[in-house]
Amino acid sequence: MKNIYKIILGLSLIVVGCQQGVDIDVSIIPDKPFIKSITLANMDSTGIIRNPISQTNVIDTINFIDSVFVKDRSVNFSNIWAQASLEEGCTIEPLGDSPAFGEYGDFSKPTKYKVISPTGRSAEWTVVVDFEKIVINCKVDNWVGNIFCSDGIWSSYSPGYCTGTKVSSSCDRLNLTFPFWDDEALMATFELELGDYDPELFSGKITLLDDVHLVGSGYDVTFHKGDAGTYSLLSGVMELVIDFSGYDIGDDKYKFTIKGQ
After folding, report:
1. Mind listing the pLDDT tens digit for each residue in 180-197?
2. How far is 141 from 163, CA to CA, in rounded Å?
3. Own/partner pairs for 95-99, CB < 8 Å, 24+ apart?
4. Which end of the chain has the smaller Cβ count within 10 Å, N or C?
5. Distance from CA of residue 197 to its chain's centroid?
């Protein structure tokens, strides 16, 4: 029995000795202190459930910057939920007054974080949340060609077709042609001018440049020149609101919704 005990003790010492001599291959330990992406979300109306926000991450692993671009320009960056996806085994901690991930915080200005890999290598990251950059080449292009026009007074009389035509090479001028009340005898062409747009909201005002006088099918009506509503380059929608006379519609403003392609 004593001999068996001695044999077991000897084997244990051999195993321990072998383990002490093992070299660990440090090259297999993850060593990238990188952010892979940031996910954003909003509170819903109950203040509990998170609604995902569509975003695009642009990762710069040389300067350690994650630029997060959001398309929806109604998002309030001062109170959004955020979570970070990291490279394998990494941890992250906020620096200064930067909000912690996994909860709501203020991302209206650049925030900074320290990311640490399993080897101990670290990097200081800057997270920048901003609206997606939009390049507008020509304002009226949204509404050139066959488009959708809806009558805002009597939807059942919406025109069966509607055409937008750019005036010369102007990006501010658009002629909108359609049969009013879907009546070929009342063909209307609105000469519209799109004013400057707000660089934050990408919306602006519309002007009807000339009166539009329509006589036919027993009607004699006029759309009067002047302020004619608003347009949105983000949604591709015009909300026309035009002074109107010659027929009792219950209002002196006629409304149309014009949707681009």
Report:
1. 999 999 999 999 999 999
2. 12
3. 95/124, 98/127
4. N
5. 18
Q: Give the C-alpha separation, 149 to 258, whole Å.
A: 5
Six token digits for residue 235 = 């949604």
Tokens coding 209: 């440049």
How far from 128 is each of 49, 51, 115, 135, CA to CA, in Å? 24, 20, 16, 20
Q: CA-to-CA distance for 71 and 130, rounded, in angstroms?
A: 9
* pTM, rounded to two decimals: 0.60
Contact 170, 192 (CB under 8 A): no
What's the token pair of residue 189? 């062409």
Domains parsed from the chain with CATH numbers? 28-131 (2.60.40.4120), 139-259 (2.40.128)
Q: How far apart are CA 206 and CA 67, in angstroms?
A: 35
Q: What is the pLDDT of residues 220-236, one digit of tens each?
A: 999 999 999 999 998 89
Q: What is the pLDDT of residues 196-220, one digit of tens each?
A: 999 878 899 999 999 999 999 999 9
Q: What is the largest CA-CA distance in the chain?
A: 122
- Torsion sign across C-alpha atoms 23, 24, 28, 30: negative
Task: Single out the residue of 147, 121, 118, 157 nearest to residue 255, CA to CA.
Answer: 157
pLDDT at res. 18: 38
Neighbours of 130 (CB within 10 A): 13
